[in-house]
Amino acid sequence: MKRILIVITLAVFLIGGLLVWRQKNDESGAIFQQTLKVFKPDSEKQPVSSNPLAIENLRKRAYEGSQVTIEDTLSRNASYTAYRVSYLSDGLKIFAAMNVPTGSSELAEGFPVIVLNHGYFNQLTFKTGDGTRTMADILAKSGYLTLASDYRCHGGSDCDGVSRGHRAEYSADVMNLLSSVRNIKQADAQRIGVWGHSMGGEVALKVLEINEQVKAAVLWAPTIDSAGRSGSRWGRRRATESTDSQSFKEASSMNYLSYITAPIQLHHGTADSEVPYEWSVELDEKLKEAGKNVEFFTYEGQDHNFKNLGWGKISPRTVEFFDKNVKAL
What we know:
The chain is of the alpha/beta class.
């Protein structure tokens, strides 16, 4: 009888331990499973990588978009009105800055749209429009409706539990914003370009590889995520991704440049101490090897933010490029 009681007690402990382990395992994988379930393979015969941040998976998943809600009016001038808006991305409420040119109600087709992608910021001190405000002002005065996502976990946006690094999920936030453009009555969803600076350039590259509907892109001193290179420069950037070489290859935009269809304008200063000038040289070479339409402008002695230039050359070139490849369509 005593032996039977011992066996029963051991069995109870074993079953209880298995249940606790299963519960913890399910909780730790909840975000991964929630992300993975929205992937939509082109064919049942085409397997989906176990890496939810792989470019192929980001291309196959759904981006439903949502209504774009005006939360606040930030400013108003003769050329445009600036708003703080919100939209949904993977179930998260994300804030964004939106500039709507004056006279939008008179345009039946709507304004051409430029989606701007900001670089790395401290997420806790970030405010809507940081990193994109000046270029958005210039573009809005040139007749573009501009949108700049805060990204998840930045400012007041909802967070998914991971709050550090240069994350591939930011490109999903931008993709969901692109899908939401059709719900903005003043916007022409058929004429959209993207702009990105620093980390925002990397986000923009991924967007170009995911969405072939973007008409043109301008990249200022973009980071590039070739396996290991960026991770060794900033330890923070890979806080949420595996350092396994295969995972890097699957998630690196540098390995999927063949998917890009939009023309690209690239700008970089030779005195950039944040993102090496050589990275844009490499990106330019790889894009040309892949047969892509790219033009590369070098700025001697300019830093990461082109402070010494006064934007006297770079901003007119940016607007002219968008006028030719987005507005004129």
